[in-house]
């Protein structure tokens, strides 16, 4: 899942991003509304965590802009105000969910994951394919009865492949979904991560390389 965090309180923004990355999400961070509109133009995000009171371009206008783009991006709006009228107004301009500050980080994670599921075709909460069982909420992977312990990026790559349900996923698509925009697109990080993932999942291999196209399970 790829997430954009838009928050002008830099310490809070960076803390949220760090926590989401620990949950195997690819996260970009910006600190004002103008930068947010630039990012949503350039990248496809599953979820935007959007502070309402932003400099340069107000969060409401960023939300309206995302809606006008017509993408499947979901918006979780944050605000320091817990007033009901503010929450209603935020939802009416196009936000998909609303979370007042201060918030419990576990709740933020749960809401981001729920919105991420809504940004894609409906899938069961636990993904199963080729003897692999992946639970995104618990961040657990099993092959048969054996639990497989994965690093966050390995988990993210496996989740993308499982969600594609047999469709070939290119290295570029994996890079976009599992890494943030600071990753050098010319590195071999995708190939190395897939190799490590194959080794951890064990024999017989379940990840197939399609020459010139990408990978699939």
From TrEMBL:
Record GO biological process: regulation of DNA-templated transcription
GO cellular component: cytosol; protein-DNA complex
Keywords assigned by UniProt, alphabetized: DNA-binding, Phosphoprotein
UniProt domain Response regulatory: residue ranges: 2-116
UniProt keyword Heme, yes or no: no
UniProt xrefs under SUPFAM superfamilies: CheY-like
One Gene Ontology MF term: phosphorelay response regulator activity
Matching PROSITE patterns: OMPR_PHOB (PS51755), RESPONSE_REGULATORY (PS50110)
Gene3D superfamilies linked to this entry: 3.40.50.2300, 6.10.250.690, Winged helix-like DNA-binding domain superfamily/Winged helix DNA-binding domain
Domain OmpR/PhoB-type span(s) in chain numbering: 124-217
Segments of the chain annotated as binding DNA: 124-217
Family annotation (CDD domains): trans_reg_C
Residues with the 4-aspartylphosphate modification: 51
Protein name: DNA-binding response regulator
């Amino acid at each position: 899942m790829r997430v954009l965090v838009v928050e002008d309180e830099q310490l809070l923004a960076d803390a949220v991003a760090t926590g989401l990355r620990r949950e195997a999400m690819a996260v970009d961070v910006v600190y004002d509304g103008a930068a947010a509109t630039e990012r949503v133009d350039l990248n496809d995000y599953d979820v935007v965590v959007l502070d309402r009171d932003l400099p340069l371009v107000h969060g409401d206008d960023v939300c309206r802009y995302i809606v006008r783009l017509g993408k499947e991006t979901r918006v979780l709006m944050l605000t320091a105000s817990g007033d009901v009228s503010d929450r209603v107004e935020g939802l009416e301009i196009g936000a998909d969910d609303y979370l007042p500050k201060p918030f419990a980080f576990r709740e933020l994670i749960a809401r981001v994951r729920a919105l991420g599921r809504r940004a894609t075709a409906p899938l069961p909460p636990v993904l199963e394919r080729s003897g692999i069982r992946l639970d995104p909420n618990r961040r657990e992977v099993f092959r048969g009865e054996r639990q497989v312990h994965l690093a966050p990026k390995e988990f993210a790559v496996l989740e993308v492949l499982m969600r594609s349900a047999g469709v070939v996923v290119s290295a570029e698509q994996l890079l976009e979904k599992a890494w943030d925009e600071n990753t050098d697109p010319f590195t071999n990080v995708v190939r190395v991560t897939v190799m490590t993932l194959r080794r951890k999942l064990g024999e017989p291999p379940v990840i197939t390389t399609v020459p010139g196209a990408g990978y699939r399970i």
